[in-house]
Amino acid sequence: MAATGPGAIALDLVNRSSLNKKDTEEINRGLRTQLESLGLRAVKPEQAAATVAISLSENLQNYIWLAEIHQGAGEYSIVMTSVPRPSAPAFVREPAAMTIRKIPLWVQEERILDVGVLEESSAPTHIAVLDAEKVSLYRLNGGNWQLEQALTISHASTWPRDMRGRLLMRQDHLFDVYLPGVFCQSSNNVPLNLSCRKSDDPWPLSSLFSLSGFYAPTRNFFTGALSPGVGKQGAPAARQLYPMAFCRSGWSVTPARWRQ
Known about the structure:
Double Stranded RNA Binding Domain; 21 strands; mainly beta; rod-shaped; single chain; five-stranded mixed β-sheet
């Protein structure tokens, strides 16, 4: 009103902000209504004493309204005002759902040293269970585990009190067994047999990488010597992890599986 004075004006509004069409039309109507209440009439450009070009723009904090007002020959003025933008709701990205399934696999009175899965579908159906004296093969049939074969582990020395052992699946034969001072290898034909011998070979520490550690059977711990040395590991390979736990009914093993 101060820039144009009362009279007829040509009003043009352009939206260069993120406001949608509905909001822009509402702003246009509101401006025209307010200007009319101040004595200004919106007319065609050829009938107007002044032209008002309004641009709706924005920055990160505010909406910015810019009015360029032309009166007469070469006379113009610029008026600018800002309106705070409403706080936009923060975009919350839902994390990918993760589920953990607990599947009871095996329970027995003897301490379980390791378990290997020989066959599986949605759950293991054929397993090998290692304890201090044998490797037992079980197959799931009709919802019940049935013993297929028990392979005795021959050894001359007394086992340490806190027993440890590894059962590793192989490609050229079914599995290898690592025990304190003893190494056993299965055959590849059914029925299986198990050949055991005295050994101080290093134990594979993980099938995720090719790294073995030397085990001191008389002291019942790893010596700290590795083969190969650190920095010479081979390519990784996947392996299912089977945590052991002792419960009232005996030792149990449950495969922990995670999905995302």
